[in-house]
Design goal:
This protein is an alpha+beta fold. 38% of the residues lie in helices and 19% in strands. Strand 3 and strand 4 form a beta hairpin.
Length: 419
C-alpha cells in the first residue's frame, strides 16, 4: 500500500532534507559547517546580482546564520581542491570529485557542436587552439589577461567576446575548468591543470551518472516528483530519469508515496520519498531565501509544495513589478509567509526593505521572526541600520516589529541583539 502524506508533512520532509531542522551553529561558523551544508545541498548556484548579497552567499546564511562571507570566498572562490564550477543546475559550485559525473553533459555539448559545421566551436577553431595553448603555457588566466596578450595584428579575430566565448565553450565541453575567481571574475585553466588526475581518469557512464544524480536529488529533496528530480540537476533526458527512479525503487532507496494536493488533472502526481527522509514533528526555522535556493528554484515545485507563485522581477520594467526588483521569499516554520525586496545601501550603512508582502500562508505572529532575520541580515552584511519603505501589505507590520517608522526612519542594529 502506498503511503499517503499530507501537504504539510511533505513540506516538513523537504525542509528537513535541506537542513532547516538543524540548529544554527552557536559558535563561529567554520569551513566544516560550510562543507556539511554543501553535502545536503549538493550544489550551490552562482549568480552575479549583488543588490543585497550575491545569491551563492544566501543559502548558507539561510541555514547557518551570520557567517564571514570571506570564509565562503576562501572555501569556494579561491583556487581549491574542494569545489569546482560547472553547469550542474545553472552555473554552480560542485565538489571537485564529482567532475566525472558531468562527463555525460560535457559529451552532449561536444557532440552537439562538433557535429555541426556551423557551430561557434567549429567556426572559431583558431581562437580555440590559441586559448588552449595560452592556458597550457601560462596556467590559470582571467579573460582580461588573455585578451591583453592576444596578437594585435589579427584584428577582429581577437575580439573580446571571442576570447570569452572560447573559454565558455571549452568549459562546457570539459577541456577547461574554472580555477577560482579574482573578485568575481573567473580564472580558467586546462582541466588537467586543475582537476586531479585520479578524478579525471575515473569513468562514469551516462546511465550511472544520471542514476547517482537522481539519488542525490532525492536525498536533497526528501520527497519529490519526477519533474523535481530532473530539475535539481537540470537533466532533460526524462526517459533516463524515469529509468533511474525505477532502479532506485527496485533497490528500496526510493519509496512511492502520495501527497494530498499534489495533483494534476485531478489525479495524484507520482511522487517518491528518499529512504533516509525524516518527517519532523515541526520546523522552527526562520530564513530569508535566495531566488536560487533549492527550496524555491524550481517554480513548479515552489507552487505545488509551498503555494508560492514566484517570479524574479529583475528583468521586469519597474512600473510593471508587483513585488520589487530582488524580492526574496521568507520562510517561517514550514511555510513561506512573505517576500521582501532587499537592498544593501552601503553609503548609509542601511539594509533597505524596499517592499514587503504577505503570502496567503502568513499568520499574525510571523512578523517578529521576520524582523529578527532582517536585523540579522543587516549585521551579516555589516550594515548598521534597517529601513522599511511604504510599499507592500506587510510593510507596516514589519516596520512595527522592527520599531521603525514606516517609510523613512531607521533603526540602529546592535551586534549584541538576539538573532
Amino acid at each position: 500500500m502506498v503511503e499517503t502524506l499530507t501537504a504539510t508533512q511533505a513540506r516538513r520532509i523537504a525542509l528537513a532534507a535541506q537542513g532547516f531542522t538543524r540548529r544554527r551553529p552557536s559558535a563561529e561558523v567554520s569551513a566544516r559547517h560550510l562543507h556539511t551544508a554543501m553535502k545536503r545541498l549538493g550544489v550551490l548556484q552562482i549568480d552575479s546580482v549583488n543588490v543585497f548579497a550575491r545569491s551563492h552567499y544566501l543559502p548558507l546564511f539561510s541555514r547557518l546564520g551570520a557567517y564571514d562571507p570571506a570564509l565562503l570566498d576562501r572555501v569556494f572562490l579561491s583556487r581549491t581542491t574542494h569545489y569546482v564550477e560547472y553547469l550542474a543546475h545553472e552555473a554552480t559550485f560542485v565538489p571537485v570529485e564529482d567532475w566525472p559525473l558531468w562527463q555525460f553533459r560535457m559529451d552532449d555539448f561536444r557532440r552537439r557542436w562538433e557535429t555541426d559545421p556551423d557551430s561557434w566551436l567549429n567556426q572559431n577553431a583558431r581562437t580555440i587552439a590559441w586559448v588552449k595553448d595560452e592556458l597550457r603555457t601560462r596556467g590559470p588566466l582571467r579573460p582580461a589577461e588573455l585578451r591583453a596578450d592576444a596578437p594585435r595584428e589579427r584584428g577582429a579575430w581577437w575580439d573580446w567576446d571571442e576570447v570569452k566565448n572560447a573559454l565558455e565553450h571549452l568549459w562546457r565541453i570539459g577541456d577547461v575548468a574554472v580555477s577560482g575567481r579574482q573578485g568575481f571574475e573567473r580564472r580558467y585553466a586546462l582541466a588537467e591543470q586543475e582537476i586531479p588526475a585520479e578524478v579525471r581518469e575515473r569513468t562514469v557512464s551516462r546511465d550511472e551518472a544520471i542514476r547517482e544524480l537522481v539519488r542525490r536529488a532525492a536525498r536533497s529533496s526528501g520527497v519529490a516528483t519526477e519533474a523535481d528530480f530532473g530539475d535539481y540537476y537540470r537533466i532533460r533526458d526524462r526517459p533516463a530519469v524515469r529509468r533511474a527512479i525505477d532502479e532506485l525503487v527496485s533497490s528500496a532507496e526510493l519509496i512511492p508515496v502520495q501527497v494530498r494536493g499534489w495533483e494534476r488533472g485531478g489525479s495524484p502526481v507520482p511522487t517518491w520519498m528518499h529512504q533516509d527522509a525524516v518527517l519532523p514533528r515541526r520546523v522552527d526555522a526562520a530564513a530569508i531565501l535566495s531566488p536560487f535556493d533549492p527550496v524555491v528554484w524550481f517554480r513548479e515545485r515552489a507552487l505545488r509544495a509551498f503555494d508560492l507563485d514566484y517570479r524574479i522581477e529583475i528583468y521586469v520594467p519597474a512600473h510593471k513589478r508587483r513585488f520589487g526588483y530582488y524580492s526574496l521569499p521568507v520562510l517561517v516554520g514550514d511555510r513561506i509567509v512573505a517576500r521582501v525586496d532587499l537592498k544593501a545601501d552601503r553609503a548609509t550603512s542601511t539594509l533597505q526593505v524596499q517592499s514587503a508582502w504577505w503570502e496567503p500562508q502568513a499568520r499574525p505572529d510571523d512578523a517578529d521572526p521576520i524582523a529578527r532575520e532582517l536585523a540579522l541580515a543587516a549585521r551579516w552584511q555589516g550594515l548598521d541600520n534597517v529601513s522599511v519603505s511604504g510599499w507592500g501589505n506587510a510593510a507596516e507590520t514589519l516596520a512595527g516589529a522592527l520599531h521603525v517608522e514606516r517609510g523613512h526612519v531607521q533603526r540602529h542594529v546592535h551586534a549584541r541583539e538576539s538573532a
